Amino acid sequence: MKLIKLLSCVMIAVMMLSCVTVFAADSYITLNGFTFDINKNGEAVIHEYDDRSETVVIPEKLLGANVVAIDDYAFFGDTVITSVSFENATHLNSIGIDAFYGCTGIKTLNIPASIGAVQFGSFQNCTGLENAVIEDGLTSIGDQAFMGCSSMKYIEIPDSVTSISNTAFTNCDKLVIYCNEGSYAQEYAEQKEIPYLLIYNYELGDVDLNRTINIRDVTTIQLFRAGILDELPTFRGKHYADVTKDGKVNIRDATMIQMKLADLIDSF
After folding, report:
1. Fewest C-beta atoms under 10 Å: which of 20, 66, 152, 180?
2. What is the Cα 57 distance to its own chain's centre?
3. Residue 131 zone, left/alpha/beta (φ > 0; ψ -120 to 50; rest)
4. What is the DSSP letter of 131?
5. Would the pTM of this model clear 0.85, i.e. be above it?
6. pLDDT tens string 86-130
7. Are residues 119 and 191 in the same domain?
8. What distance in Å separates the CA atoms of residue 214 and residue 219, rounded to the nearest whole number?
């Protein structure tokens, strides 16, 4: 009888443990490659990504819940990804520690101001990363945030950034910082002896940044698209060439500039 009772207790304990395990697993949901949960505020937090898609678009919502955070290590070491977009993630307020560590295929980044700060190692060892733009409103860049991004040529840092860690750009030997005159980023670049270029306001369509929109800008895009130019004059040139604002520089942009020059449209 005692043996039967003991076995019964063991079975009950195993069943209870199984229930707890299932409950914990069920609290995470996978949808479109994103593994996430819904926090007590009814907001979605992304914990992992297991889709094999090369292009990642962080969504605005998952199961109707606003996506507010990307957890620590969420995309850690994912070498399949070649691009990640935060454009749709209008409620995102946090990108965690080492979240994109070692994502070696990512080449460009546009980092939203809504996250407030680039945290420890968020994009560390993204060795394929070539350029990044930090949106105006973000205030700090943390320790090792871009450490080891050995291919990074340009990063645009706005005036709103008033704190940059000493180790944020360690081993980014090709880096040029784009910043405004008198900004904290300029002061930081001078202190760390990192090359920098001052940003001036140019008009959309001024591809060669000579402060005039003319047929040369159209020709520059055409040469670029034809492969005669390996790249546009500067990283900022790519920004001002994308007059359709679709994230690409193509013949549509050249056509729009031609239409503006012919007074067929007033603006882009």
Report:
1. 20
2. 10
3. beta
4. E
5. no
6. 999 999 999 999 999 999 999 999 999 999 999 999 999 999 999
7. yes
8. 9
